[in-house]
User: Fold Phosphate transporter from Dendronalium phyllosphericum CENA369.
Amino acid sequence: MEIFGESLTASTGFFLILALGLALSFEFVNGFHDTANAVATVIYTNTLKPTVAVIWSGTWNLIGVLTSTGAVAFGIIALLPVELVINVGSGAGFAMVFALLISAIIWNLGTWYLGLPASSSHTLIGSIMGVGLANSLLSAGHVFGEGVNWAKAQEVFTSLLISPIVGFTCAALLLLLAKVLIRRPELYRAPESGKAPPLWIRALLILTCTGVSFAHGSNDGQKGMGLIMLILVGILPGIFALNINTNAQTIAQLVATSRSVIPVLERQAPITSLSGQNSADELSNFLKPTGKANDKTFAALAFETKEIADRLTGKKSITELAKDERGLLRTDMYLVAGTIGKLDKQNKFTDAKQEELLSSYKTQLEKVTKFIPNWVKFAVANALGFGTMIGWKRIVVTVGEKIGKDHLTYAQGASAELVAMTTIGAADYFGLPVSTTHVLSSGVAGTMAANHSGLQMDTLRNLLLAWVLTLPVCVLLGSATYAAALYMVLQVFGFK
Assistant:
């Protein structure tokens, strides 16, 4: 079987197609599960007809994905066990990808069927934790729990915890502020059945719907992109391990920076007798959540940096490297960039010039390894957009009818969506995955509370229960599916 110009065995080709199909299915489900929140307000205020609203929202999700930076995509990958990321083409790597996607899809479909706006971000992160825990339990020589990047997980959990609080509080305050500054009674009335609002109100609500849809695409859409890139790097490293469009000038600059970095690292590394495999293992161990820096860390970092410089010296294009060499080079770059980042966070660089040089080097490395082809963006964008257009209704009914006791007013819809748009956009800028569901649903609840419209406590209890259960349930799902998938790929299909 030949795919992307490379010959694959039938079993490997099957796994590639299956994995890509699951990744796009995850984004499809994400579309009708999460993006439905964005259209709830414009539908329930009669601003747009449902069909027009979901097509409009799907289109702006697509645009959001296409213009995204990729920061969130690689932030998600940073949560995965480092040995599985490096060896994603192994049997354990395949099992990891399948477990993540299958467990996330199962929970998303279950909560969608019940009409509960649960978080796809929580779902995926819970699955990642489950895989990490199961990997540490099933792998020889591992301490239970060391497969989870707890520091990165804490950073993500903080953003996921704070975002609904921000949504509730800010939407409530924004509605109260609007009542003081915008004295237009029609803005605060419930819509008349079947009657569209005044033009200026329609424009405001369409604008906020557009913003939420765009922000959702630029943030949530990246999760699928990150997983797809992981799949492609593992199965087709010759094509996707490194950005083959890297120009000669960038390669020359990378070699020059590597050469200048080596003596800086060697001055902090009195131990220099490390072999290639020993140095890679040293950096892999350091990048584990429990890893501690020592003299060997700097020695290994210097050794791997020299390897990068030697491999790229005299090259004007990535295509001049042998295909099997590209995968090895990506591993070196991934380990070096990750190690520099972790050392920086641990304040191991005391000299300002040294820190600046190494930070610049890390950025140069990531330009070659952290890239997303346009066709991947288009594929994810279309999956997200089609999902929005097909399965939106269950979640829309919950957000529009079951959170507050009174009908959603124009001002409430605009306030909730404006806060959601801003919060998600800020999280996207900082590379943090947040939940569109949590921000917008809590924003609607906040406006209902501020407006004294009353809250339907049964719905809120169900929402909170779904939010609380998402992480532990997905940890269990991720662990169970990883163990099952690992058995399948190792015992049934014979992968190593």
